[in-house]
Design a protein that fits this description.
One of its GO terms (molecular function) is GMP kinase activity. This protein has one domain: P-loop containing nucleotide triphosphate hydrolases (Rossmann fold). The chain contains seven helices and nine strands, in the order E-H-E-E-E-H-E-E-H-E-H-E-H-H-E-H. The protein has helices spanning about 25-35, 65-75, 90-100, 110-120, 135-145, 150-165, 180-190, and strands spanning about 15-20, 40, 45, 60, 75-85, 85-90, 105-110, 125-130, 170-175. The longest helix has 16 residues, at about 150-165.
Length: about 190
């Protein structure tokens, strides 16, 4: 009897979920994880301070400016961007490892980062999460109660720009119902094109 070599895992698809601040990306991603536990969700790095209830290595890797600079200088980020006075980025190595192992991988990132990933990995599927309306988006941002008025206004101004970019994405999912939106994202992650 001859031994057969273990099959080599097929590379999995990278799915990039983006949308304006306050649209509910984190809430939708949490529901995606519940519905499709096989998906691996990248944890971004940021230079911002943790919000109440956030823990290092869970929501983000919280870094100093110097640590973030080191990641950029050593090309260890797939993408990075500045947003609301802080920097955010996606560590390269874990994403590449999970994709090579055949595990569907999801990035939850802002528009600047999604554009960089489009340049580096055009085979990824790009999903734009949109609010039901700009008014609803404003209500969500204000309702958080975690940021000063000027930060909320800056996020809303940026959201207007990001909403205009929805046509740069492969699919637009409206977050009018978290469970429905998450199920739609799961269907996009789990179905491989023929």
């Amino acid at each position: 009897m001859t031994e057969q070599a273990a099959p080599t895992p097929q590379p999995a698809r990278l799915t990039v979920l983006s949308g304006p601040s306050g649209v509910g990306k984190g809430t939708v991603v949490a529901e995606v994880r519940r519905l499709f536990p096989h998906v691996w969700v990248s944890i971004s790095c940021t230079t911002r301070r943790p919000r109440p209830g956030e823990a290092d290595g869970v929501q983000y890797h919280f870094l100093s400016d110097a640590e973030f600079d080191d990641l950029i200088a050593s090309d260890r980020l797939l993408e990075y961007a500045s947003f609301a006075g802080h920097r955010y980025g996606t560590p390269r190595k874990p994403v590449e490892q999970h994709l090579a192992a055949g595990r569907p991988t999801l990035l939850e990132i802002e528009l600047q980062g999604a554009r960089q990933i489009r340049q580096r990995m055009p085979e990824a599927r790009f999903v734009f999460l949109a609010p039901p309306s700009v008014r609803e988006l404003r209500d969500r941002l204000v309702g958080r109660g975690t940021e000063a008025t000027e930060v909320v206004e800056a996020r809303l101004a940026q959201a207007e720009v990001e909403l205009e970019a929805h046509d740069e994405f492969d699919v637009v999912v409206v977050n009018d119902d978290v469970e429905r939106a998450a199920a739609e994202v799961v269907s996009l992650i789990s179905v491989v094109d023929a």
